[in-house]
Amino acid sequence: QVQFVESGGGLVQPGGSLRLSCEVSGIPWNYYAVGWFLHAPGKERDGISCISPTDGAKYYDTSVKGRFTISRGPKNTVYLQMRNLKPEDTGVYYCAVAEGFPPMVVATYAYWGQGVQVNVSS
To answer: Which one of 8, 63, 72, 114 has the minimum C-beta count within 10 Å?
Structure first.
């Protein structure tokens, strides 16, 4: 059974920072990419960033490139460091895993966490 423990969401002012964490168990860690998706109010769930299981390759959506950093930590954990946050970054952030390193679309990710809420507002 695949299980997720996500944390790090909250309320932050524009220009502020947050770090999201996602700990995943129940999968062979070295075979799965880990991604973060944003479900913003009134919009579809979109891929923000993901990291490959092997060579550390990373993907960033153009909306977050240069502001967000994805990394792998110990104990099957992936972090999303978010800096210079903007109101349009507001929404629920979902951690998800996909076998291999497929295109970052919802349909290619098999398992999903419950999501964490991020609110960027003054």
So the answer is: 114
- How far apart (Å, rounded) are the C-alpha atoms in residues 117 and 102? 26
Residues facing residue 51 across a β-bridge: 34, 58
Mean pLDDT, rounded, of the chain: 95
- What is the model's pLDDT at position 47? 97
pLDDT tens digits for 48-80? Answer: 999 998 888 999 999 999 999 999 998 899 999
**In sequence order, which residues have a C-beta less than 8 Å from that of residue 63 and are 6 or more positions away?**
48, 88
> What stretch of H or E contains 33?
strand 32-39
DSSP-derived pairing of the beta strands 91-99 and 3-7: unpaired
Instruction: Decide the pairing of beta strands 77-82 and 45-51.
Output: unpaired
Cβ atoms within 10 A of the Cβ of 87, count? 11
Percent of the chain with pLDDT over 70: 100
Residue located via tokens 């993907």: 59
